[in-house]
Design brief:
By secondary structure, this protein is an alpha/beta fold. The chain has one domain: Dihydrofolate Reductase, subunit A, CATH 3.40.430.10. It is 23% helix and 24% strand. The protein has six helices and nine strands, in the order βααβαββαβαβαβββ. β4, α4 and β5 form a beta-alpha-beta unit. The longest helix is centred in the N-terminal third of the chain and has 13 residues. One of its GO terms (molecular function) is 5-amino-6-(5-phosphoribosylamino)uracil reductase activity. Keywords: NADP, Oxidoreductase. InterPro entries: DHFR-like_dom_sf, RibDG_C, Riboflavin_Biosynth_HTPR. This is 5-amino-6-(5-phosphoribosylamino)uracil reductase. Pathway: Cofactor biosynthesis; riboflavin biosynthesis.
Length: 230
């Protein structure tokens, strides 16, 4: 898909030195986010204010129940975008509230009662994909119908992997936390990745690094190799 048919996408996350997002499987990322320096917390909210949309996966909503709004700086909260294959967002999810506009992307296989409940809560529901959300198709819908030119993702390992695998991430910004948590099944920045050779690795180019308070921040461009013609 040509770049102009989709938003420019920044993946932003806090990670430990060993690349983990949480203390253990099923734990909220908010536990580690408490240890971000005040300056990096401001950076996160400034970034949200600069982008048209913010996307996280449905599992992140179930675990963290985030608001995904701009709170610590002046600025408009971005459009909240949540891919949910079966439209099974919890009824008490904060993203269903009036703090910002929300789009829930679902598949055609989503149960009708789930879709009706979400629409009745006041959010937009868009259908993209048969059995699971078609992320490239969703990007085109966000660009065409919602005017999203720049989107950030604060995703978990599944969404991060899917977006990279579809070649939909342009930049990555990481807030490095000075901890090691370990754990073979502890969620890391990208999951779902079982590559066969080094040719399949996602390649990055470091473009900037700086201290933000007591946290190191690194910024990377994602370098995609041309898709070989079959």
């Amino acid at each position: 898909m040509p770049e102009h048919d989709r938003p420019h996408v920044l993946m932003m996350s806090e990670i430990t030195v060993d690349g983990k997002l949480t203390l253990k499987r099923g734990a909220s990322s908010k536990i580690l986010m408490k240890y971000m320096a005040p300056e990096t917390e401001l950076l996160l909210h400034q970034t949200r204010a600069e982008y048209d949309a913010i996307m996280v996966g449905a599992n992140t909503i179930r675990i963290d129940n985030s608001f995904l709004t701009v709170r610590l700086v002046e600025g408009k909260s971005p459009l909240r975008v949540i891919p949910s294959n079966r439209a099974d967002i919890p009824p008490n999810a904060n993203i269903l509230g009036p703090d910002a506009r929300t789009v829930i992307a679902v598949s055609k296989a989503a149960p009708t009662e789930n879709v009706v409940r979400l629409r009745e809560s006041g959010v937009d529901v868009v259908v993209a994909g048969e059995d699971e959300v078609d992320l490239p198709g969703l990007m085109a819908i966000l660009s065409r119908d919602y005017g999203v030119g720049r989107m950030m993702i604060e995703g978990g390992p599944t969404l991060n992997w899917s977006m990279l695998n579809h070649r939909l991430v342009d930049e990555i910004r990481l807030i490095h936390l000075p901890f090691i948590v370990g754990g073979a099944d502890t969620p890391s920045l990208v999951g779902g990745m079982h590559i066969e050779s080094e040719d399949e690795m996602f390649r990055l180019s470091l473009k900037r690094h700086f201290m933000c308070g007591s946290n190191l921040v690194t910024e990377w461009d994602v370098i995609y190799h041309p898709v070989p013609h079959e």
